Records
---
Amino acid sequence: MINNLLKLLLIIVIILMPLQVYGENPKVVKAWLGVYRYNGTYYDPLGNTFDGSSSFEGSDYIYTVINYQLSNGDIIRQVIKLNDNLGTTDPAATTVLYWNDKNWVVHNLPNQTVINKYESEIPVGSQIKISMADNYAGTAYGNGIWIVHISENGINFIEASQYGCYYHNVSFVFQNLNTNSIWEVQMPYKNKNTIASRVFYSGIIPFNGSNATIYNIHGDTPYAGKILQFAPPTELFKSSGGSASKSKEKTVEMDYQAEEAEKTIEDTKSTISQIKSKYNIKEAESLLSQAEEAFNKGDYSKAKELALNAKDTAIKIKEKAQTVDGIIKDAKSTISQIKSKYNIKEAESLLSQAEEAFNKGDYSKAKKTALEAKSLALDIDQDSIPNEEDFAPYINNYYIYSIIIAIILILAVNYYTSRKRKKEYDERKMKEFRSKVEKWKKEGYDVSELEEMLK
Ligand SMILES: [Ca+2]
Ligand SMILES: [Ca+2]
């Protein structure tokens, strides 16, 4: 008995071994979320449109779509499908309240009464809170709640719930956009149409070919306490091993990106060819050729970014050139008005330098030189007094003022010096006189009158 069991185990191990070695499972490498207000066409966040149907009665029919890219290049599109007392809506009226990444950075979405379109790439490891309305009323979302966690192995959710007035047949529908294969994973049936009726459950839906499992089911459902298993069709998740993946190098996502990049490059090309006939936009042309290079290397996102940058640069240069053109025209007209009255040869020479720079495409130099030319024409000596008001239009008034101040200073110094000299002379003379009086006094002369004078 034990021997047989060991043999069985051995056989199982042998059967599974090659799978482990060669059958590497595809992983979820990227995901995108799209939430749309229905406008007659169904979209997914990768830019595809698809067929659907609606029995939703309210005016606020919002639907949610998730795209997953697998490591083998396959793209899976997920929607939620609802069948209730009022009919079928596929994709069901579903909106997203928020999503958060694995670091719990939360991205809130506008609510269902105002949201029109929301598209975002969602990092693997994020979770998305989806809220469903049954087919009954406008904005009354909340008849179904799932917090869908995206991992590299697929998706899972804990304690999802459905409630409200109607019975629900809800399923998660996965479509492989490369093979068109469809996998519908049934959620537990909500079987009562009373407001108090509820059903709760959890689920694991792997993207590697294994069964989906819906478990922890409780509430008003015939499935309470059971575990539901749903196997995917064989076409849905192909292994990434072998040559199959080589043939899938060009995935839907890559095609989409390539198409986007190509469109952007074409658009930029036409903008550039229009502008370059008039203006020098070498910088933009160089960015465009870098974009084309990136495109040829298959780096479509870089190609698109560079092409957008090229277009933006071309437009900015055109706008700048137009402004500079205006500045040159203005300088020209100013100069032609002034040159009959004043000699403004220097300004005229600067203006022709500006025009030359403009024709060469050096718009910064052209602008600077044209502004200088105009300023020089209006105020030849650059003393900030316009020619018309300037008593000496060719001589900088500051020189004149400086010279006047210098002359005044010299005169003042001379005056001071001569006064000082005179005073010193007087004092010397007085001293000599005093000593003479002193001498006369000693010699016996009466100097009392002179002494009185000297007091
Ligand atoms: Ca002046
Ligand atoms: Ca002057």
Note: Confidence is low (pLDDT under 50) at residues 13-23, 240-250.
---
Amino acid sequence: MPSTDRVNLASSPEGLEVRERYSSGYGYWDVWTDDARMVVLNAKDARRNGAVIRTRTEFIGAEPHEDHWVVSIRDRTTGTLERIRARILFDATGPWLKSNSGKFTGLDRPGDLKLVQGSHIILRKWWRGSHAYVLQHADRRIVFAVPYPGGLAVVGTTERHLEGPIEEAGILPSERDYLLDILNSHFKRRFGPADIVSSYSGVRPLLDRGGSKGLSGLTRDYHLDMTMVNDRLPMVSAYGGKLTTYRVLAEDVLDLLGLHLPNAGTPWTAGTPLPGGDIPHGDFNSWYGEFARGHEFLDEPLLRHLGTTYGTEALDVLDGVRDRSDLGRCFGNHFHEREALWLAEHEMAGFADDFLFRRTKHGLFLSSEERKDFESWLNSNNLAAAQDIE
Ligand SMILES: Cc1cc2nc3c(=O)[nH]c(=O)nc-3n(C[C@H](O)[C@H](O)[C@H](O)COP(=O)(O)OP(=O)(O)OC[C@H]3O[C@@H](n4cnc5c(N)ncnc54)[C@H](O)[C@@H]3O)c2cc1C
């Protein structure tokens, strides 16, 4: 990556949209990921390495027995309860750690968990170029404006203590205004609520060890807690963390469990790509050029979507496609039956939102009519997961 440099906003393209009062800035390089896709790719990778992945399954409780746990789980689409044995438990339920605590018989958890909501707004991208902006608010917090797929931009985040249930977290008018304010104070054009295409909120579980005056003073680092329930059954809980450190966190968990997992081997994930990431020399542009040349009969935006979403697995999505008609029906925004069938088979997609928002972002670009049509297609092809019964 090139090093940090100073940007003259008065003369550089990055400054075109920025208010005149900001005459200089700093440029640096960073990486981005689609967190929902990162989760599914890790699940696929784990499955390839022998893990059993149970989506739409709820952890109900765990009881310690002589040398193992008995864990109760429930399939949320059928209601079926199942009990399974486990030697070790790892609780990675993040913001739900606190509400799940009572489900582990004999567990005494340390520390207080603060739930912090962060909201984002999505707007049509208003600047040219693939760069992002880091803006500083009057309260000295920073807010990012980052390119988002499909000609959009995402702006966030806010930070507020969440008091109600996690499931009800959603952007408040005050958070929306906070984000619009920072845009209006940094950019020449005027932003209002009507510019917002969509919004979403996330919840961070931050460990409060006392002594911090505000939310921003709480650590974003992860903390691992290992407890030996009944003096013999290991149980690890992860508090906090970042996407950027998830592989280090996972290796730290295995380190902690070393004595209990004598055959775990040595760490191997640092240099191993996730499914679809095995792009020769990490050179996406060269790989994409070749991929696009091999499928010249398809539109560039479709190829770009498949290449950036699935990496080398895009070849698998298009396996056997010789002609546009092989893609099947188009639901809108380059979303075809072919991709939907592949998602159902390879990426555990079952609910309409899995296809439209979690595995892809097609839902942002389909009209409500088109989304309904897609749902009908899903139901009539028996691909839809049954509705959640709760
Ligand atoms: C607003 C915001 C912005 C962020 N920005 C960044 C960033 O820029 N860079 C970065 O690196 N990190 C960022 N993070 C942090 C990052 O999102 C988290 O570190 C990451 O999502 C943690 O993933 P996780 O799988 O541990 O937890 P989660 O993603 O919270 O997943 C927990 C899962 O547990 C499940 N669960 C809970 N209870 C049960 C149960 N009883 N049975 C079954 N399942 C259950 C939930 O359904 C959920 O799917 C941000 C976080 C927020 C909130």
Note: The first strand starts at residue 5 and ends at 8.
